[in-house]
Records
---
Amino acid sequence: MSPTTVTTSGFLQVLATQIRAQDPYGVYRTWSDQRLLQPFILTKDEKRKIPVDTPVDPVTRGRITYFHSAIARQIEQKTGQLMQVVVNLNEEGFGWALIFSGKLLVVTRTLRDAQRFGFTSLELLQEDGEKAVRSGIALAEQFPEVTQA
Amino acid sequence: MSPTTVTTSGFLQVLATQIRAQDPYGVYRTWSDQRLLQPFILTKDEKRKIPVDTPVDPVTRGRITYFHSAIARQIEQKTGQLMQVVVNLNEEGFGWALIFSGKLLVVTRTLRDAQRFGFTSLELLQEDGEKAVRSGIALAEQFPEVTQA
């Protein structure tokens, strides 16, 4: 590990694990978590340059799914309830990211300009993920009977 | 209206209305509801002939969305709660149809072999739709606070 490598923890680590789980050829084995998460980081300028009049490309779509799967996995860990993830995007990059258990939606996020999905820093990526995890856990604890319905 | 036309009511009528709402050129204006709903009816043999190793074609995808939108509209009418519809299908015709309000999923249906979406008769189409409407209304009445969450 090089001395400049940021050691990831919490949400970022779970997110990296999600990505590593989809690496049948072991390409990412020698990569640091930070390198693995780099494509999630976009400056405002980089975002602006991505056109939003075309469908979301499969790699970006994959990143959106990894992000929400990481949220779901953390909510599962804390609540013991299995979570389903559905990411639904239309041709214009609008749609929904949903995480649910039984009949309870613990996360409902509308997506727009999903072609430009990204965060300006690793810290903001972590913050946004953990915010969704916290509110998801709170909902699962508030309505446990709905997760069983 | 020809004497052999079945007059639709309840769910089938709402479903026909969903389809007519997406008819900007008025092509369906002179069509009976029954003719409009005919593509929802497939014999077992017709289903078997539809390959399931290709993505769901847009017209079939549209029918799946109309069907669940009709369910959502009827639940809205009875409960006064706005419902969102998400139909999520992967390349292999597997996925979810979800209807929700606030944080409550009133309908969660897994779809498989969605390429073959259809019913063997109008009666079965109506029955299946109304069954989902009834259980959706029951859930919305059981957990009203979750639709507001």
---
Amino acid sequence: MTPSRSRPRVGFIGLGAMGRPMAANVARGGYELTVWRRDPSPPLALDAPGVAEAASLAELAAACAVVVLCVSDGPDVLDVLFGPRALADALAPGSLVIDCSTTSPAVAQDAAARLGARGVDFVDAPVTGGTEGAERGTLTVLVGGAAAAVRAAEPVLATMGSRIVHLGPAGAGQRAKAVNQVILAGTYLAVAEGVVLALRTGLDPSAVVDALGTGAAGSWVLAHRAQRMIDDDYPLGFRLALHRKDLRIALELAAGAGASLPVAALAATLEDGLIAQGYGDEDNAALARAIRALSGLTQ
Amino acid sequence: MTPSRSRPRVGFIGLGAMGRPMAANVARGGYELTVWRRDPSPPLALDAPGVAEAASLAELAAACAVVVLCVSDGPDVLDVLFGPRALADALAPGSLVIDCSTTSPAVAQDAAARLGARGVDFVDAPVTGGTEGAERGTLTVLVGGAAAAVRAAEPVLATMGSRIVHLGPAGAGQRAKAVNQVILAGTYLAVAEGVVLALRTGLDPSAVVDALGTGAAGSWVLAHRAQRMIDDDYPLGFRLALHRKDLRIALELAAGAGASLPVAALAATLEDGLIAQGYGDEDNAALARAIRALSGLTQ
């Protein structure tokens, strides 16, 4: 296949817990897919038809007019684009980079400017919806970038997400993702405190959660994560350590913008303690471990 | 009408923002209704058919086999029942008191024991759903009490609420209400922090709220109160000062039970400041004023 503007071959970099099912959905959505992996030795194990594997970023760039990134953090994005293997140097003018990683807005603005100078478009497109959403293709994609670049990205994003929301220029998607992670932090703590109070006062916590879920205390976290807090068992989901990384981005953004977010800051320090105690690979709902511990509800 | 076991005349005490529409729904639900007011001089203005007004609690007790209370706090409940006007002394054995006020669980247990000694049943039945729910008859009612008393209360409660949930013996309804108010406190702060971060970083906050509402950050508060926080305008709703009262009950309950709830405690101290600044009569969503102020977003 040669690159095509109407149905381009898509490159995908970052086959983690989120990226793997997202890449599979791009392929199932009818795009020819080429992946590149830092370590190509394990089996590829990508549940999708006709996936090619590039031996280098340059080979991937030569085959693909659109490249999706889904790596861990901003430094990884900048390393892939502008580091020693410099994807940016190999991309043809007119290409498009879609960054689904969660990074600081500054990374998105920097990448957009540096790629723009080479005639390559960039959109930041962090996602919400967890591994369930990634597998089902029902992610919400929070998009920042120039209007023409976002229009070009939308058909590819539509294979991965059910809501594609353009929120402003480059960085706007990352700012909105930071807002999401801040709201999540507080909602997890809110539900954890309610669950712990129910447990400590001898209520049937599941009955209380069920009773309150249809009222003003209702939330996605209450509906989908309270039972894990009741059981004190936190299967993934979304890794606590990754939420802590996202809170670092959000709190740095907040500090730079003059916003003081006491509950998000509390969540961050509680997560630091939990990660140091070895709980970083559990689901984010494990924040309840901290409220349980404060309340003497240890296992 | 003489009191009837099958379709008793219902007494109602406490015609405030919640009690007034709840009483109207009891009357519309087919119950003969008698009310008593501490100050009977203003027009009754109860939008319901055939409502009688008793000149005293004794007169109300003589007419009614079921009495609903919807007053401000535990001391008011104990004053109505056991104070100088002692409703308890006038109630016939076999009567039923349904307390829809939000009080400490200890008040409910005390009232249940003292009324039980006189052969009068008691259930605590605090509600959630706000004035909208009270008007539409769609409240959730959190019920504590003995099974027979709760069965007797259910038809009356069904005129006021669409979910009637029996959670345990006397006091269990109040404990569950405390859990509700704790979860609400944290969720309000979570959404307020997200809104403030969106405002401070130049996002369109309404677009962000809309984008995040269908995902893991979604909640009733985000869907129904974020826009008030964006507008910095807090029409009722549910009074901030009443939520502070409920948090006092919840935090005392938590302390007695060995539960430490840092976010609820933060909400309480922020609400204290706001009440002292004159915002106690605004909607609970005015908690966002505190996060706005911390972030330099004053009007």
